[in-house]
Amino acid sequence: MNNPIIKEILSQLPEDKISDACFEGANIVLYTKDKEFFLNNNGLIRKIVDNIKKRVELRPDPAITIDKEDAENIIRQSIPEEAGVDKVIFDPQRSRVIVEAEKPGIAIGKQGEILRDIRKKTLWVPLIRRKPAIRSQLIENIREVLYQNSDYRRKFLDKIGHRIYDGWIREKKNEWIRVSYLGGGRQVGRSCILLQTPESRVLLDCGVDVASEREGYPFLEAPEFNINDLDAVVLTHSHLDHCGFIPYLYKYGFRGPVYCTAPTRDVSALMLIDYVKIMRSNAKEPIFSIDDIKEMVRHTICLDYNEVSDITPDVRITLYNAGHILGSSMIHLHIGNGLHNIVYTGDMKFGKTRLLDTAVTKFPRVETLMMESTYGGRENVLQSRKESEDEVADIIKETIKRKGKVLIPVLGSGRAQEVLLIVENLIRTGSIEKVPVFIDGSVWDITAIHTAYPEFLNSAVRKQIFHKDQNPFLSDIFKRVGSQKERKQVIEETGSCIILATSGMLVGGPSVQYLKQLADNPKNTMLFVCYQGEGSLGRRIQRGEREMSVDGGKEITQIKLDIHTIEGFTGHSGRKELLNFVYRCEPKPKKVILNHGESSRCLDLASSLHKMNRIETSAPRNLESLRLK
């Protein structure tokens, strides 16, 4: 309790009321053995929060909480049956109990009255979580890792708090900010940006380029990067080109935090496990192990959108909805005491989709905008959603008519769920014939995570999910494929059908297995709905390659099926949307740095933005550094 900020807080509270004080990351947690003080502190904690402008929570000391078995009985009796309580999981080190319920609103009660009642009777702090509509063993495993490591987590979070606050009142001198592109500079893939200040070393994303054999990983050998000095990683979203190298950091001893939203943590873990499996199935040695992925999960700190959090003594972040995939974020970085504000968009969609709300454009302050440019070239004018959906309906109808199968290679997260909703809607409204839709790869588990976090989806899908009989993800048209035997049945015994399989760029995974079997039949169709990375099999086919090697190159298969590309479903912004995003950005940035785009597209967009907005723009290459202040 020697920390200056904790001393300041304790000086404002009655003596002997607080038995322990510690940090949970940027949050300050006080424990009390005084039952009455826990249940009613007469607004003292609120007053302290207003004074120091930090999040402070009062909890009961573990010594006064009632027995877990008795507490569980009280919880189950207190919450109405229609709430659908499932698991009750205790976190004894932090005096918290997590209650999974089908209907969290009912479990919480009017204005939180049921939670207040549970606190009073049990002296535990209840937290209500939504039970996923689709059960996923992998989600349960991820949560298990966190619950099993509760004691470790408490110490880890306290250590982070000390790193943030031990210099709380220290004078800041000689302030400067530098960003270095260790990946994602004039390329799509291996996004990785190092932010440096005199106090901090923070990575924004740390991904892999799955389409590249030779240059797949970020330049961590760059002289400015030292894993021992790294304070934190802030992850925008769960695609491998942004998260795929993070477990490698843990393999080599990093034990700092990863900040992201809860869905990003869960989906990243699934994508990374899938990545290891695909590497093994392609007879490659994985660059990290499942244990390294668990280590990443163990060190992840989840933030909600719009939640402000200090992550080092001079860097404060806020995550905002990026509209790209479930839980995807733009990172607002407030550096120093008002010194400079950066918005790093990660991947973002400035346009409404069936799944998500559009990316946010209002920020407290922004001097520098670091923005993606995947579809930033002059030629990247994307179709409207309606045109794209009509085209999908026509392609599927035509394929069914000739008794063929439709293969849609998808990224496990984002495009897959978007396409599921579109196909479900087309079938439900009678626009296309009812055929089975087979789901293979990590898609099923990631769809389950979508049902666990409906608050991250747009209001239309949220409403459907809350009414079980209308939940589009639970439609009887969807069939899960879980084995090689089932895959064989889909190919040989099923008539016309739609197959969604990972990976989206045909770089391993079930999508490649299906293509091998379906390629030589012109009745079948392959439909690309997501970006195809340079060097990937998907990109080569788009460019006209009509042969693929099978069984390690021993055999060549002719690609005779029908091939279509529809870019209108992308989770990225098209050129018009990118220009519009900068135009609508509040406040207007003074500088725009373009990344995550092929060289010509980055340069093209940089030039257009400079001319239209009369602001400074740049498109750095990998290994270039820029001083921002």
Q: Gist?
A:
This protein has 629 residues and is α/β, with parallel strands linked by helices. The protein folds into 4 domains: 4-63, GMP Synthetase, Chain A, domain 3 (2-Layer Sandwich); 67-131, 2-Layer Sandwich (GMP Synthetase, Chain A, domain 3); 177-378 and 572-627, 4-Layer Sandwich (Metallo-beta-lactamase, Chain A), CATH 3.60.15.10; 385-569, Rossmann fold (3-Layer(aba) Sandwich). A hairpin with a 2-residue loop joins strand 13 (308-312) and strand 14.
Fold topology:
Blueprint: H1 4-10, E1 20-24, E2 27-32, H2 35-39, H3 44-52, E3 56-60, H4 68-78, E4 85-91, E5 96-101, H5 104-108, H6 113-122, E6 125-130, H7 137-148, H8 150-165, E7 178-183, E8 192-196, E9 201-204, E10 232-234, H9 240-243, H10 246-251, E11 258-260, H11 262-281, H12 290-298, E12 300-302, E13 308-312, E14 315-321, E15 329-335, E16 340-344, E17 368-372, H13 385-401, E18 406-409, H14 415-428, E19 437-440, H15 443-452, H16 459-466, E20 478-481, H17 484-492, E21 498-501, H18 510-518, E22 525-528, H19 537-542, E23 547-550, E24 555-558, E25 562-565, H20 575-584, E26 591-595, H21 599-613, E27 616-618, E28 625-627
Parallel strand pairs: 2-3, 5-6, 9-10, 10-11, 11-12, 16-17, 17-26, 18-21, 18-22, 19-20, 19-21, 22-25, 26-27
Antiparallel strand pairs: 1-2, 4-5, 7-8, 7-28, 8-9, 13-14, 14-15, 15-16, 23-24
